Amino acid sequence: MIRRGGTTRGTDELFVATARDAALSQFGAQLRYMRGRTSRGTLQDMVGHSRRVGIMEAALFSSFLSSQLRVHSAGGADREQRIRTELAALEQLLQSVPAA
């Protein structure tokens, strides 16, 4: 999840580019609508199958993952560990939400 391929990074860049360019606002809206489709399975695995992950949760999780890469892109030897620490905190939070 932390080591993502060039295609995923390219997708993240596309999200950012469409958000910044007013001429791409319609396209950006369509992209945001699809946000989270590939992250949904990962999030579902994290919370377990006692509750179903919704579309909005998956989109927020996808945004969270993208933000982690942007925030920590400055580098540093402990970058991967910092991301893992934040993911562990998120996972602990997710596990505390009761099943519906």
What does this structure look like?
With 100 residues, the chain is mainly α. The protein is built from five helices and no strands. Helix 1 crosses helix 2. The longest helix has 17 residues. The N terminus is likely disordered.
Topology readout:
Layout: H1 6-20, H2 25-34, H3 40-47, H4 55-71, H5 79-95
Largest sheet: none
- Count every beta strand, where a strand is a DSSP E run of 2 or more residues: 0
Strand content: under 5%
Based on CA atoms alone, the radius of gyration comes out at 15 Å
Average pLDDT across residues?
Answer: 77
Structure class: mainly alpha
Low-confidence stretches: 1-5
Shape: flat
Kindly, what is the distance between the CA atoms of the first and last residues, rounded to a whole number of angstroms?
A: 27 Å
Oligomer: single chain
- Work out the helix count: 5
What are the main properties of this structure?
flat; mainly alpha; disordered N terminus; 5 helices; about 100 residues
Summarize this, please?
By secondary structure, the chain is mainly α. It has helices at residues 6-20, 25-34, 40-47, 55-71, 79-95.
